[in-house]
Amino acid sequence: MDGNGRWAKKFDHPRNEGHRNGLTAVRETVEICSNLGIKALTLYAFSTENWGRPEDEVDFLMRLFEGFLRQELPTMLKNNIRFMIIGDKKNLPDFVQEPLKEALEKTKDNQGMVLSIAINYGSRKEIIMAFQQIVKKIQEGKLSVDHIDEKLISGHLYTSELSDPDLIIRTSGEQRLSNFLLWQSAYAELYFTETLWPDFNRDELYLALETFSQRERRLGKV
Q1: Phi/psi of residue 86, each to 5°?
Q2: Domain that holds residue 123
Q3: What's the pLDDT score for residue 98?
Q4: Angstrom distance (rounded) from CA 133 to CA 147
Q5: Is 221 domain-assigned?
Q6: Per-residue pLDDT for 220 more than 90?
Q7: Catalytic sites, residue numbers
Q8: Cα gap 79→192, rounded to integer Å
Q9: In this structure, what CATH number is given to the domain that contains residue 192?
Q10: Looking at the domain assignment, is residue 217 inside a domain?
Q11: Percentages helix, strand, coil for the chain, rounded to the nearest 5?
Q12: pLDDT single digits (tens) 150-184
């Protein structure tokens, strides 16, 4: 979800106003995807590299996330959405931990769309952690090297309960993955749009889905 800062600059607003307006796009995207029957939606909210941003901006983003959890939990429950986190939640501020735990616990048995928020997430770190876990199991005699395959590695990632993504959408004109789901998106279709995230609406999402539906998914086969 890229382009909040540029959106704010475009309208001569503080950067945090861009992040605040980005929540509107989040709510609309979640609602549409849930209504369309899409099984899983993952939103990249905060990367491991984002801790390097100014302290006041990081604090604002975390408090925005706290507010999102508190305000949207009733909607998630109403719409049977299961909420998940991918990333290292241990390093998140204390004021986030309580509403995060509540959202995870209260939605864990929901059978509708899985909404994953990638926060304090970095794909390279995720892969390193997976291999550390696998190596430890080998050292403890629980696994052998011969057991290492794609399924085993996938099972040690944050996304072990999710299918690999079919479509990755990146807004604001950037054309790279930026350390997002590197292992999982081996065969994902990539869609790039110049639209800044706060301006990403129903029409933009439908256009992305329509474009995806017209692509031929061979997955390396003929």
Answers
A1: -120, 130
A2: 4-211
A3: 97
A4: 13
A5: no
A6: no
A7: 2, 50
A8: 29
A9: 3.40.1180.10
A10: no
A11: 50, 15, 35
A12: 999 999 999 999 999 999 999 999 999 999 999 99
